[in-house]
Amino acid sequence: MSRPRTLYQKHIDSHTVCTLDDQGHVLLYVNRQVANEYTSPQAFSGMREAGREVWRPGATLAVVDHVNPTAPARTATMPDAGGAQQVSYFEKNCRDFGIELFDVLDKRQGIEHVVAPEQGFILPGMVVAAGDSHTTTYGALGAFGFGIGTSEIEHLLATQTLVYKRLKTLRVTVNGVLGAGVTSKDIIMALIENIGASGATGYAIEFAGPAIEALSVEARMTICNMAVEAGARGAFMAPDDKVFAYLQLKPRAPKGELWTRAVEHWKTLHSDDGAVFDREVTLDVAALEPMVTWGTSPDQAAPVGGHVPDPAAQPDPILRQGLQRALDYMGLQPGMPLSDVVISHAFIGSCTNARIEDLRDVARVVRGKHVATHVRAMIVPGSTLVRQQAEDEGLAQIFLDAGFEWRQSGCSMCLAMNDDVLAPGDRCASSTNRNFEGRQGAGARTHLMSPAMVAAAAISGHLTDVRTFAQEA
Amino acid sequence: MQTFNTVTGSAAPLLAANIDTDVIMPKQFLKGIDRQGLDRGLFFDSRFLASGEPNPQFVLNQAPWNTATFLVTGPNFGCGSSREHAVWGLKQVGIRALIGTTFAGIFYDNCQRNGVLVIQLDEAEFKRVAEASSIAATAQISVNLPEQRIELADGSVIGFEIDQLRKQSLLLGLDAIGTTLQRAGQIRAFEARHLADNPWLG
Question: Which domains does chain A have, with CATH numbers?
């Protein structure tokens, strides 16, 4: 009998073209990739300069998402010259190399990690790499996704493979039943706070346990998406019936007899009994509170009922200096209750939290209420199809009535590469993934939290425990 | 790709934890379709004041670190976004190697693919390099890749580990794609078998 293997090992074994050394390097076959306009141009230029062909054009789906405006009226015009040049070169590259493109006017356009699952482009058992760190999202479907840089995009386009070093494996077992108003975003934020921003560097995480099984597929995507903020170079979950049900009706999912055969195979995609992980972490979420970040790294987070920490309590001088710098940047005083933090902006969007379930969560919180007068609140749906669905379900009207801007899809203010940029000193409650210095605009301050928590902050004008808001059944 | 053999120069300390790629290369420098002009963007918000003048407080604006060849970096350097622009910017200001305890995975690979050597040391050894680099008089170091050692100004030597695959690629400046394409037949055979076994992926 063969040795029990983890799901990660099964993925890598089944995609290894050949072993390159005895230090863990393999030539790894990659099934699919998603491309965007901002990390791909130099890769395509490299292909052109070397006169190389794309190995398998159908393996790539191209989506414009990072630089496009999200103003409520959709137009193909990019307001700045750089973005316009990136989009037009992207279109040319897709045309010349035979790659399918969802341009900004396509009804299926949106954030790549929302669009690809929505189309059924990502399936269990696949290895997926893309020029975006949040490619880890696909782990929620039982695929192994990871981010790569532009040189690796070029390597992938030219060879359909990557020179890859096997990671160590970390299993995170999540136990307990989440309380009302607490979400998968809070689970992943609590994990990152717990193990640190480099706590999973060098590892692939497998999430398991009853609290994961209880989550919807979309909620699981939020967890895999943000695993990279703990340094994980991949994070996934064994696919189950929820995943199969999620995929079955997607446009590109296999049909008929192929579907039956695929599901039969996908059911074998789990870690074997007795498989050994390099490291194990257990998290109990029964008492978990909604989380918010107070600093400039995703691990600088606390329950919303907590306080801003005091750097003076940190004995290590470099860490103390780092804490002080974070508080100075964030304009916060040690010991201050987090619920006293007044915001100027609220942003709901990103590949982490802008799917339809996220928008339903927001609607439950804001229905019949109004955004605080000093707050500018924006909702940027994860895809144009999500936007359409939210309109069909009547959510958009709830948002508009509550004083939110209801915008078109794109990465938008998650990284502020387009014209959705905060000004210095602005303070934003954000459903995104990174609270780095300058992330949403030079000098701007970001507090990460779940979409429902952003909604509550938008209404009350300061960070607020969403559980104190009356919610619909 | 530029080869790396033995390189000598000054090492600049950037010891804060979790210096992310947004800080290394802010968004306004990501709008190109080539690799040009990223030297200007490197650490832009730290290197320059609002007036556009160099910030005298920032280490890379102070002699001898203003001509640094190496960065000595705090834990988890390069975390966050996959943007390779961060590494292109480092190269364009003349950085040839980074020395730290831990680096973010995508950033680490991006360095490798651009001929920038990444050296991971344990805490104690790292501390020696960090202390030497923090004093102008001892900031000059040599990195010898063939012999896998760092030579400090006081003559002491610190050895480091590196995968042979990565080492050879840096020493020879290999074109990774060209090397992989030598296995094109093997990839094609694998692909045919893989798609036959998983026909729903076709």
Answer: 7-279 (3.30.499.10), 297-468 (3.30.499.10)
Predicted TM-score (pTM) of the model is: 0.97
Give CA torsion, residues B82, B88, B90, B94, to 10 deg.
Answer: 160
Predicted complex ipTM exceeds 0.90: yes
Q: Which of A90, A297, A421 to mutate to test the interface with B (most CBs of B within 10 A)?
A: A297
Q: Tell me, what's the pLDDT at A470?
A: 60
Q: How far apart are CA A430 and CA A437, in angstroms?
A: 14
The answer as to whether B133 is a domain residue is yes
Give the mutation candidate from A14, A18, A25, A42 for the B interface (greatest B CB count, under 10 A).
A42
Output the DSSP codes for B36-58: TTHHHHTTHHHHB-TTSSB-TTS
Same domain, B179 and B87: no
Confidence band, pLDDT 50/70/90 cuts, at residue A473: very low
**Chain A 188-207, CB below 8 Å of chain B: which residues?**
197-198, 201-202
- The model's pLDDT over A138-192, given as tens digits with 9 standing for 90+, comes to 999 999 999 999 999 999 999 999 999 999 999 999 999 999 999 999 999 999 9
The domain containing residue B184 runs over which residues?
Answer: 175-202
User: What values do phi and psi take at A452, rounded to 5?
Assistant: -65, -35
- Dist. CA A35–CA A28, nearest whole Å: 19
Q: How many domains does the structure of chain B reveal?
A: 2
User: Which residues of chain B are within 8 Å of residue A131 when distances are taken between CB atoms?
Assistant: 82
